[in-house]
Design a protein that fits this description.
The chain is mainly alpha-helical. It is built from 12 helices and 6 strands. A hairpin with a 4-residue loop joins β5 and β6. The chain is globular, with a radius of gyration of 25 Å.
Length: 384
Amino acid sequence: MICRWIPDIKVKRTRGLRVREKESRLIETWRRQLAQEYRQLCWLYRVPLKLPLFEIREGQSRAGTWSPGLDTLSLASWLILDHSWDVVLEVLKHEMSHQYVQQVMGRGDEVPHGPAFQEACDRLGVHPEFRSAQGAIPRLLTGEGQRSGAMLARVEKLFALARSANEHEAALAMQKANAILRRYNLERLGCQAATDYDYLVINPGAMRIAAHQRVIAAILKDFFYVNVVIARQFEAKSGETLRVIELTGAKENLAVAGHVYHFLIRRLEYLWQEYRKSTAATGREKNSYWLGVLNGFREKLTIQDREAMRTTGNNTDSSLICASDPGLIRYYRARYPRLRTVRHTGPRLHADTYQAGQQEGKQLVIHKGVSADGGNTGRLLADG
């Protein structure tokens, strides 16, 4: 008797049907999210556009298209799957600008990416790299892979020197790096040098920004020459909306600030594990220790800032340098035309653990790359 295995075609068809149903539900979620983002953008930029039909296309080579005769705005599925949502929104704003030219300006017969379109892009705050005819998607700043200018190369070398086992040498290297950043930004504003401004999205991958992450964001704003916004960002693959930290500033400052953020996140975990080994502290005390470290680090940066003001004779502290940057102010307002301030109450702290962290934070030195146990590996910047 010959026995043959007969595949269960019905089971395979059922599984295939479930996969297609899941994909259909996800695409419908994308459409609803795009409609929501569209309404939000119209409100943010005060543009009276008519909600179009949204279409997600597979096999479409262009990232997005606006079809005026059909009132349809199409985005490619690969754009949504392969890129972060902030990139999707830039393409959406690009296509909305075409719609604005036609429906509001009444100049739809002009050159597709000509003066009318550029005016519409200004109105909708489209990123400069997304204003041309679409080819490859522009690579926005990620904190890695940026080519170093002379200033960044010097800062990178000093961060490398800050790994020195000699505490005095390490602290001096970090102080010099901060002095270079300060001088660069003061000179840039003093001579009104042309500056490329950009944004950097830091996505912790959660629905809320933790207390220590907010404190780090505040440190970046006050000492590393960037502006900070806590925003929401949709995750296309999961269909969830998460909280993210958006930094805006000169590209050089963003590269440094991004490095500092990730260094501090990883260093906090390493320091906490070392503290637990020596004290047998409980997990409930971790947040107190982290906030103590960050407060101590802030105190250290404040002292360095005051020393820099004394030695240079310029009494502008670091937090006010960004506030006096007209180019950044224009970029910031164009990207975030409507913002509101929300206050957060601080968490309850374990006093002794907080103070122990504070003392550790006063000794903390930012540097480029630490050993595996320190958590931060890799390069700050690309080779120049």
